[in-house]
Specification:
This protein is α/β, with parallel strands linked by helices. It is 50% helix and 17% strand. The chain has a six-stranded mixed beta sheet with strand order 1-2-3-5-7-10, sandwiched between helices. Helix 4 (109-116) packs parallel to helix 5 (140-150) and helix 5 (140-150) packs antiparallel against helix 6. The radius of gyration is 19 Å and the shape is globular. It starts with 5 loop residues before the first strand and ends in an 8-residue tail after the last helix.
Length: 256
């Protein structure tokens, strides 16, 4: 399928969705967000096991496209923000493992995009910021995702100062999984995705869904939920095959 703002390529079991609005710093216009949702949903319906979210140009993603925002009234701004929220939820709802490959600066909703991916690897030259804190439009919605990755105090520091956080600090804080030297970014991303997509595709999809469902529940509720999901999953063909393969000391043959 052709896209105006994206490039979509498949290599083996993995698909790379590349944001391709370098002249606009990959800002998330409404049309760009709609294309991203469409692309993720399209890949979700395939047998791919992993998705790399990448970008072309000098900036990974500059957040919302202010040309859209400037033209929007109150209701229009709400619609833009809801579309962005829908994109973030789509990324977390697809059955594939989604990893962000961040080669450069990610700000505001671009930082939210990274935080919403299942995994992320950043080049050492990358940076992350919620610049609304030093401007006139605070980064309210981006910080929902970011704060859940890095915790309250660090999120408050990012949100209030608007300062750029370097890739090494972002890895220490938990915004990305690791920082890699720029020449190694592609290899480091592919290596992590390969490891994260081992095993049964169906089991992984259920596991991803359950992880997001339990993350923000109180511990007793999280355990109650996880017990029910895991008990039910024990009866699936994938679980039965995995257990049999372990007991029989042979490689598993996953159901199609």
């Amino acid at each position: 399928m052709g896209y105006e703002h994206l490039l979509v390529d498949r290599d083996g079991d993995h698909v790379t969705i590349t944001m391709n609005r370098p002249q606009r710093r990959n800002a998330l216009s409404l049309s760009h967000m709609r294309e991203l949702v469409e692309a993720f949903e399209e890949v979700a319906g395939t047998d791919a096991t992993g998705i790399i979210l990448a970008a072309n140009g000098p900036v990974f993603c500059a957040g919302h496209d202010f040309a859209d925002v400037a033209a929007a009234d109150h209701a229009g701004a709400r619609d833009l923000l809801r579309a962005c929220t829908g994109l973030m939820r789509t990324i977390q709802s697809v059955p594939q493992v989604v990893i962000a490959r961040v080669h450069a600066l990610a700000t505001a909703a671009g930082c939210q995009l990274v935080a919403s991916c299942d995994l992320a690897v950043a080049a050492l030259s990358a940076g992350f910021a919620a610049p609304g804190g030093k401007g006139g439009w605070f980064c309210h919605t981006p910080m929902v995702a970011v704060s859940r990755s890095i915790g309250r105090k660090r999120a408050m520091e990012m949100a209030l100062t608007g300062d750029v956080v370097d890739a090494v600090t972002a890895a220490e804080w938990g915004l990305v999984n690791r920082a890699a030297p720029d020449p190694d970014l592609h290899r480091a991303t592919a290596h992590l995705l390969e490891r994260a997509t081992r095993g049964s595709r169906h089991s992984k999809a259920l596991g991803k869904q359950a992880m997001y469902a339990q993350f923000d529940r109180p511990e007793p509720d999280a355990y109650a939920y996880a017990v029910e999901v895991m008990a039910a999953a024990s009866q699936t063909p994938e679980a039965r095959e995995g257990i049999s393969a372990f007991l029989e000391k042979r490689p598993p043959r996953w159901p199609a």
